[in-house]
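Example record

The entry below shows one chain as it appears in the dataset: sequence first, then structure tokens.
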Amino acid sequence: MFKIERKIVEFVERNVNILFILAITGLAIAVRYAGRDFVSGDMTWFLLGWFQKIADNGGIHSLKNQVGDYNILYQTIVALFTYIGDKSIYYYKILSIFFDFCMAISAAIFACELSKKEKNDKVFFITFAAVIMLPTVILNSAYWGQCDSIYTTFIILTLLYLYKGKYHSAFVFLGIAFAFKMQTIFIFPFIICFYIYKKQFSIFELLITVFTFWISGICAFVQGRSLLDPFRIYASQTGTYQDMHVNFPSFWMFVGNDYEWLKTAAIVMAASICGMGLYIIMKRKLDCSRPENFVCIASWFIWTCVLFLPAMHERYAYPLEILLVILTCINKDYLKYSSVVILFSLFTYGNYLFSNGGLDKYIVIIYAGCYLHFTYTILKKNSKTATVTDKEMQNES
């Protein structure tokens, strides 16, 4: 080896972490740049038209009226973009891509917090790389132009700060997440369970979330909007889609697509299954405070909601995918679950964006089976832990 080669190799070895991050970041930007001009159906039918309408109505002044079905905070950001220029497709995508990186960093920090290893550089870098290069994350922001990475970033921060016991900050982040997307509500069952299990914060701290969500509409209130509009927007969204499933491997693909007759049954079923989870936690059969369990149970509640509730879309499982990636990065045993969920999400993304074919019941069987096995794994692991704990207590006595 020549002297110059040795110096280069030694430099790489000394700075391998920095070089790894730079390489992954460069690749992540390059693959997203490739999709910059792709126009999705949502861009054509909704987002581009909303941008133009907001621009025509005076940017910030347009906030006095509702444009589109996103809540006021997102509409405010779009209104600010109208002052920069008319490249609306790029503005939507740049915003989402920026939060791709925020989400990847947040997920990596969360994984390190959960792993609690002396040297967790490996956990941080693997998690960051896995999230930022996840195919569904790339397609969601760079091709679809959707905002799922934004609210998911704040869901991760909510869980991180809940886990660390910083409850005020957690509920602020929860309010911001809810201000961007109503699907944040899928994490609420876990928060209720965690509240009952830990008994360390008041349920009234959820008022912090409500206030944060409400105050996100301040720019619209100044323009004359009703103080209740942030709540009314989400109330109106609940009746937007009259289908039991929308390009998602829902449990209701087994039953039918009659929304009028099945929607109530779906809501009751999802609530009942979540209630069973709450019962098991209240009986202390699941330990929410253990790092791995914390993310497993949060994932389970989100998975239950998207699998059994009506009118679920392919993108609604987005936070679940990220949480399963975090789990996989701290314990490779969860790779089978994250692989199935992400693979099937990728299939539905391809169906919408590139018309690669629809879902069938065989896919739903595998997806639901994976959910059931995930549930079994959580219960089995906690059963073993409880048995070991009981034996230790008997030995001590």
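Notes for this example: Confidence is low (pLDDT under 50) at residues 387-397. Residues 361-396 form the longest helix (36 residues).
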